[in-house]
UniProtKB/TrEMBL annotation:
The lineage of its organism: Bacteria, Pseudomonadati, Pseudomonadota, Gammaproteobacteria, Cellvibrionales. This is Phosphoglycerate mutase. SUPFAM superfamilies: Phosphoglycerate mutase-like. Residues 20-34 have a biased composition (Basic and acidic residues). Residues 15-34 are annotated as: Disordered.
Length: 167
């Protein structure tokens, strides 16, 4: 049994139209939601190493999580170019290549890759869209990441910034 924790980056800024996609930062809502999600996740999960896209908005989302979740701020998080993808298949390929000694993975990435991956792993459409700063946890009925396949997952929790009260 494996566990997959997926977080979509917080809301990005479109203030500079000429800026390359991977260079966009967070807007006001994104800067607010990343630490809120950090506090909410700290109350639910043990600290974990996070694998994160190279996109600036994903990196800033991780920084916001760390600001509000002190237990993860000192961990050796991993930035991976392959996580800057919008393809569910490419994301599944990345996951399938991970070390089987890891019982869980925590990824900060992008849509539509995350939504497509979640629906594929569950084997049916359970989410129309994972919103910005949205979190989903799945359990996977596999022993090796390389055995990742459609229908092997069960959606355990979805946590959205708009549903957080008092955080």
């Amino acid at each position: 049994m494996k566990t997959l924790n997926l977080l979509r980056h917080a809301k990005s800024s479109w203030d500079q139209p000429g800026l390359a996609d991977r260079e966009r930062g967070l807007n006001k809502r994104g800067r607010r939601d990343a630490p809120r999600m950090g506090r909410a996740l700290a109350a639910r999960l043990p600290a974990a190493v996070i694998s994160v896209s190279t996109a600036r908005r994903a990196q800033l989302t991780l920084a916001g999580l760390c600001d509000a979740w002190p237990a993860i701020s000192e961990l050796p998080h991993q930035t991976d170019e392959d996580l800057y993808t919008f393809s569910g298949d490419e994301l599944a390929y990345w996951i399938s290549a991970q070390d089987d000694g890891l019982t869980s993975l925590f990824i900060i990435g992008h849509n539509p890759a995350l939504t497509v991956l979640i629906n594929d792993l569950v084997g049916e459409p359970v989410l129309d869209n994972l919103p910005t700063a949205g979190y989903a946890q799945l359990t996977l009925d596999i022993d090796c990441w390389g055995d990742l396949r459609a229908g092997c997952g069960r959606l355990i929790e979805v946590l959205l910034p708009r549903t957080l009260e008092g955080i």
